Amino acid sequence: MRSDQAGNAVDIIAAHAAQRRYEDLGEGTITRARQVLLDTLGTTLGGYQTRLGRLTADFAAYRYPGDEATLVADGRAATVEGAAWANATMSKILGMDDTSRLSGHVASELVPVVLATGEHLQLNGRQLITALAVGYDVFDAIQPAVWDWQRERGLDHKSQVGSMAAAVTAALAMGLDQGRIGNALALAMDMASGTEQYVFDAGYCDSKDLLAGLGARNGVFAARLAAFGFQGPPGALDGPYGYFHAFGPGYDPAYLADLGEHQGLAQTGFKPHAGCRHVHACVDATQALLKSNGDLDLDAVAAIEIDSYPLAITPDNRVNPEPRTAEQAGYSLPVTVAVVLQRGSWYRADIEACWDEPLTRRLRRLVKIGLDEALVAADRNGCEVRVRTCDGGQYRGRVEYALGEPENMLDEAAFEGKFRHLTGDLLSEAQIVGLIETCARLEELDDVGRLLQLTRAH
User: Fold this and answer.
1) Where are the alpha helices (DSSP H) in 346-392?
2) Which one, of 123, 137, 116, lies nearest residue 60 by Cα?
């Protein structure tokens, strides 16, 4: 990568990636890498068991035939691009992939890339962790700067910044030098696309999940183009028509000033529930209410109030009491509280079974939603739920952070419980234990392919 401007944004990121070593990573980053890998394998195995998951695997085997990388659960092989696309798409289907307050959902683009590339090139666990950590660093360097503009314009981060972060991840995993890493990033910029219209059309399209797959596939494709000798624009990020100008407020060198210093992977969070991350604090607060008030008579509920943080209550689909599909219901706070009050949990099966039942319809129409100023002042993603009954009873549940945030992290038993729940009976007990134990010692893994072999449905 050559540039008239020394130290431009592409060069800075490429240099960071090329110089990153496993020994540079903190224990928090390595721990999160283990957890992210297990969590993403679980969401992928769970996603495979849906109609869309099987369709995705069949398409990848048909459209990307090859022997380079394994389709998780399915067991068939495809090209690296095909496996990255399919596994990324399947990992998004259940909506239970990881989450970051800085960058949104990251693992669904990056983990499939390091798995597919790592299997093809027989990488070890330390190489996988390093490439994954660098991908998170890139995501966290670019996404926060454009987030507000993306929301205003309806752009989707998974296929936008996801394509670029996946390109750097793939390039580093492939062992490319700094120049070619920069070209992979620059080439991926011109592939970055996608909108969040799927939020409003949920239930009528597959775009939410396909966009994660496209981000992963674009990243691998861009890295392979760069490896072959193709070049991207040096000003892909900070040029007059570069990404920060085209999709954000313009470039500020401060965006990259602390690149990698806070180790973005260490700051990621996890989703213990289904549906949109921004309803999860409501799930947790409602569960807290139920735990301390087991005698709540739902037929006697007269009013429900939910106060939360700004992103949880905007745009309008998050406060809509009348979604048209189960998929749209997964974004709705009124539906969330109504379903959790009845079933105590918020898995995909809970949503599909209960989102439009008569009692749910009655409860969700009683909901009033407001902004919690204390959460705003503290920059927390919590929620408070208050329920009033016809006889004057008052019930309350509150959380300061959604479960799974770094400040309210899942314990190892919860990670294993989620993995087992998502896997169901698809794998044998020996496979399940093998995957859990391998991820727990990920840095000791000598060949990523051994991990993929454990994911084949028995």
Assistant:
1) 348-354, 358-364, 373-378
2) 116
Cβ contact 14:57 at 8 Å: no
Q: Which two tokens stand for residue 456?
A: 């084949």
b/e per residue 345-362 (b: at least 16 CB within 10 A): bbbbebbeebbbeeebee
- Report the candidate in 129, 48, 64 with the shortest Cα–Cα distance to residue 445: 129
**How many CB atoms lie under 10 A from the CB of residue 159?**
25
256 Cβ contact partners less than 8 Å away, ≥ 6 residues apart: 9, 12, 13, 141
Q: How far apart are CA 138 and CA 166, in angstroms?
A: 9
- Distance, CA of 367 to CA of 302 (rounded, Å): 10
Question: In one letter, which amino acid is 198?
Answer: Y
Domain 9-272+428-453 is in which class? mainly alpha
DSSP code of residue 389: E
Sheet (strand 301-308) strand order: 367-371, 301-308, 383-389, 394-399
Q: In this predicted structure, what is the pLDDT of residue 181?
A: 98
The CATH number given to 277-399 is: 3.30.1330.120
Asked whether the predicted pLDDT for residue 143 surpasses 80, the reply is yes
Q: Tens digits of per-residue pLDDT, 121-135?
A: 999 999 999 999 999
CA dist 103 and 100 (Å) reads 5
Backbone conformation region of residue 40, classed left if phi is above 0, alpha if psi is from -120 to 50, else beta:
alpha
- Token pair, residue 386, equals 């208050």
Least confident of 19-33, 141-155, 426-440: 141-155
| Non-local CB neighbours of 322 within 8 Å, separated by 6+ positions | 364
Write down the residue that tokens 């949990």 correspond to: 345
Closest listed residue to residue 69, CA positions, set 79, 54, 58: 79
Burial of 426 (0-12, 13-18, 19+ CB in 10 A): middle
How many angstroms separate the CA atoms of 338 and 361, rounded?
A: 8
- Domain ranges (residues) in the chain: 9-272+428-453, 277-399
How buried is residue 50: exposed, middle or buried, by Cβ count under 10 Å (0-12/13-18/19+)? Answer: middle
Q: Are 9-272+428-453 and 277-399 equal in CATH topology?
A: no
Nearest CA among 262, 287, 364, 246 for reference residue 32: 262
Q: What is the structure's pLDDT at 2?
A: 39
Contact (CB, 8 A) for 80 and 223:
no
Give the pLDDT score at 258.
87
Start-end of H helices in 229-381: 243-247, 280-292, 310-313, 326-329, 333-343, 348-354, 358-364, 373-378
